[in-house]
Amino acid sequence: MKKILSTILVLSMLLSLLAMPALAADPLELTMFFPVNVGGSVAQLIDDMTTEFNKQNPDIQVKAVYTGNYDDTVTAIQTAIGTSGQPDLFVSLATQRFTMDDTGMAMALDDIIANDPEGQAFVDDFIDGFMLDSYVEGGRIISIPFQRSTMVMFYNKDAFREVGLDPEQPPKNWTELVDYATKLTNDKRYGVAIALNSGSAQWAFTGFSLQNCTNGVGLMSGDGKEVYFNTPENVEALQLWLDLQNKYKCMAPGIVQWTDMPTQFLAGEVAMIYHTTGNLTNIRNNANFDFGVCFLPAGRQWGAPTGGGNFYITKGISEERQQAAWKYIKFMCSTENAAQWSINTGYVATRESCYETEVLKDYYASFPQALVAYEQLPYAQPELTTYNAAEMWRILNDNIQAAVTGEMTAEEALAAAQEQGDELLADYQ
Amino acid sequence: MTSSAAGRRRREALQGWMLLLPAVLIMLVFTVYPVFRSGYLSLFKYRMGKIPEYIGFGNFEQLFGNSTFWKVMRNTLEFALMTVIPSMILGLCLAFLVNRKGRHIGFIRSAFFYPSVMPMIAIASVWMFIYMARNGLFDQLLVSFGLQPANVLSNKDTVLPAMAVMYVWREAGYLMVFFLSGIQSINQDVLEAAAIDGATGWKTFRYVTLPLLAPTTLFVSTIAFTNCFKLADQVIIMTEGAPNNASSLLLYYIYQQGFTNMNYGRSSALTVIMLLLLMVFSLPRFFSQDRKIHYN
């Protein structure tokens, strides 16, 4: 038995050796690292799209390597760069762009765009709110928007009816938010939920900061070199969170996890949640009640954070590889693919022209809740993005948590965050 | 005559070194070199993509002035206190429990040992369901007794004990195996002699078995201590150090500084601190207890 097996093994190895040269003039092999942050099927979708690209371009073979969540992917890139196993392109958070540029992990794309006759038109077609966080120092473009999301509010219309609120009139501002959430709270249900775990709190807080700010930019300067955590408006925003928990008791105390929130919403344990558009399909498929999607309630103005991942090309790869990688990016972000990608995942379609396609028009006609995210985009801005972004996130998250667990007041927490943030950015002043 | 004896000794020595060579090489490349490299890098201000800049003990000074660092150190020590002794006691009890002959004893032993061969990711995921806010098993249990759900992982006072419980559950089965082999290697004559002298139950355990288990206990305590300092995956999966670093442990902090923040200088400095700490914990114990132990 063993003999037969080993014979087969040897034979098959020999055969595969023979088969290799038959695969024609060796195609250019590219490696792409990509993260998945929302669920299993996304990895399959990327594989399918990549297979399609490889079929259309026999001279290029892209190998898509799933590398965990966003953090894991940064780690994977960081350890692979400079070795023979380095990726030629990768998907990483838009907020990593200053770090990607500063550490020399990703290259500026301006020359590639200039040399491509369709380049400028391609870039111009992306929605401004998303393209905003592709720029780094000197106005260079370092990334192309891909899996982009924004935060919206999901609310339970049945619960609204139950307490005598109009299900077609979700809260429009903070006052109504507090009012409705209080009315919706009972023994078995909280009125509202915001995820406060590390990695999520900073996202929601970007939204609240944008809604309340008077400086127009919320938490940070556009060049990523300054943060404005301790403004009176931000203190007010954080105080609102604490009040929802402790004063009005309409939000669960402590830290609710991002990943637990959809479950709680679907179980009817919370009536309104702040969550990503990426969860739309999940909630649509699993809600056994009537639900609505609406803008995030405004403070002084409307405001919402964008987030998600962009394509980057690794710095220092050959010209030929750069071109191949660019071709792949253009394929993945083509109008048709971006539209279909949005329908399949719940991410927001990134290009204006997507909204002219029949598939997307049909989709919105059959499922109007999906359109809310697009309509909110004019009020949306990038989430917290600075140099050393990962560490800056941690600083804000830690201090928000300190306020939530009662170790500090809102004012103390944001003052501490400001001090630590300034120190982190001192090298870039 | 003498010269040939010396030659033989030299040959033997050479042979010995040749046999050791693979192990020594692996040690040098994967243990000794990284230790010295960390020591060297800890003296530099060094982030990914930047040119390292020598700053002497600057990284250490920064850490010592940083309240998060002290919080992490306190957490690490508290976690050690909460886990090492309970997991040893539990491991010892389990060892006595399964130290018998019977039809299904093999299965029972494997069942107790099983958690320690399971990947930490699987274990942590299961325990996250237990600790999940409100819908988790633990909170449901509290609710069924008419209590408020505790959401233990989001509370700064309960998060570390909650993780310690899980760790003890996992570690006890592993330590059990060492205790079991220790118990089984005790000479039966000694126990018989004790029985003839009228010692029973607790007395036999206290005055005969336990002292004879001392070498095992020393070994186990060293393993238990070093293991609990080596914990990072559990933190990454369950809490990422939340809330506000109440569950950050030293190795997780090193990982975070090195691989998330890409601050290699600081993570090297932390590594040096961890190495010193491990030395402080293992060396004196070894030397001071070595003489008092009864090797039979």
Question: Can you tell me about this structure?
Answer:
With about 425 residues, chain A is of the alpha/beta class. Chain A has two domains: about 30-150 and about 305-380, Periplasmic binding protein-like II (D-Maltodextrin-Binding Protein, domain 2, 3-Layer(aba) Sandwich), CATH 3.40.190; about 150-305 and about 385-429, 3-Layer(aba) Sandwich (D-Maltodextrin-Binding Protein, domain 2). Helix content of chain A is about 45%, strand content about 15%. Chain A has 19 helices and eleven strands. In chain A, the strands form two sheets. In chain A, strands 1, 2, 3, 6, 7, 8, 9, 10 and 11 form a nine-stranded mixed sheet that branches. The radius of gyration of chain B is 24 Å and the shape is flat. The longest helix of chain B is centred in the first third of the chain and has 40 residues, at about 1-40. In chain B, strand 1 (about 45) and strand 2 form a beta hairpin. Chain B has a two-stranded antiparallel ribbon. Chain B has 13 helices and two strands. Chain B has one domain (about 60-290): MetI-like (MetI-like fold), CATH 1.10.3720.10. Classes of the chains: A alpha/beta (about 425), B mainly alpha (about 300). The interface between A and B is medium-sized, with 37 and 27 residues.
What is the percent of helical residues of chain B?
Answer: over 70%
How many beta strands in the DSSP annotation of chain A? 11
CATH architectural label of the largest domain in chain A: 3-Layer(aba) Sandwich
Q: Determine the number of helices of chain A (DSSP H or I, runs of at least 4 residues).
A: 19
Helix-strand string of chain A: HEHEHEHHHHEEEHHEHHHEHEEHHHHEHH
Keywords summarizing the entry:
heterodimer, A: 429 residues, alpha/beta, D-Maltodextrin-Binding Protein, domain 2, 2 domains, two-stranded antiparallel ribbon, 19 helices, 11 strands, 15% strand, B: 296 residues, mainly alpha, MetI-like fold, 2 strands, 74% helix, flat
